[in-house]
Amino acid sequence: MNETAAHVDPHVVALREELLAATGYYSANYFEARRRFLRAAGRLKLARHALQIHAPSPNDEPLTIDIAVAGAANPTTALVLSSGVHGVEAPFGSAVQLAFMEQTLSGWQLPAEAAVVLIHAINPFGYAWRRRFNENNVDLNRNFLLANEAYAGAPPLAGRFRNAMKLSRPRARFGFWSARMVMLALQHGPSSIWETLPVGQYDYPDWLFFGGAGPSQSVHSLQNFLPTVLGEADDVAHLDFHTGLGHWAKGELLVSESEGLENCDWWRDHLGADNVTQVKSFTKSYEVRGGFGPWLRALFPNCDYRYATAEFGTYSAIRVISALAEESRWHSELGTNSIGHESRRRLAETFAPQSRSWRTKTLKTALEWTAQAARALWKRDYAA
Length: 384
What we know:
Layout: H1 10-24, H2 30-43, E1 47-53, E2 63-71, E3 77-82, H3 90-104, E4 114-120, H4 124-129, H5 158-164, H6 179-188, H7 191-196, H8 217-230, E5 235-248, E6 251-256, H9 261-271, E7 276-279, H10 292-299, E8 304-313, H11 317-334, H12 342-351, H13 356-378
């Protein structure tokens, strides 16, 4: 029976509208997301900058890291929102940035020497091709090594796990979970997976979580550009949006123990202790080599640079790792020709679920955290 206006619960209508609105901030691909980001920034008259990444593009359009700045050109305090360090996770962060500009930023009154900096698609190649990694198979969140760190080395069991994850014939859908993988986990303990796979490795360019042989284009571009907008800042709060780790639709603010207790305490005090996880080495909330946060703090040594990974859970860890492994193995065979392959579609769903309820809940949380960080920085009541 068709619903009529007299029989529709207004709460149901409101919920439907909320679900549709959240989904509407998601774009079909990187190029659409970029155009929408730039249009929204243009409507708000934000300063816009494009850092080109020279890499193959699916339709030969340029690949760029786009940056929009609201407020002071040379701020002393700044709120930074970044997306797309991992390309396949970028749809969520891009949706947050678009919703923030269209719903929230226009109503904010920034202090005279404050700015909001939006960094869109730090890994545009990965976003465009629906891969986690960049044009050189590099995991960018393992590529931001400090000046005294070498792009070399791997966890002790990396070679053995890599061999266990090699292509199988005939190919199994979940080839990752082979008998060899099970035996390795039993032999070395379940924690060996977290101590080996996600922490970063620099010895196997064709494998997962490869940190590169040197700084990537994205690293060089940000290193050269960011001081032009944040060089005079002495107080920065930075939310870097990620997906894939944790419980379904639940957000966590991951703060590396290497960045000091004062950074963790700031996020706990202002965004809630229940939302903050201090990341320690060799735990399920693993600490990586070459992470974005420590690199930023080193880039701005005279600034209280408060960085947190805003991580939103999707599917189980089993699905996440197996989807990454399956896509990586197909990519090694087909290269960019695998863009329409089932492994890419599965990877995209794994990191940016189509579920309207997931998208609504995570977007709401991300916008609330953004407003809370702004309140903490500027001691003003900013609405989400």
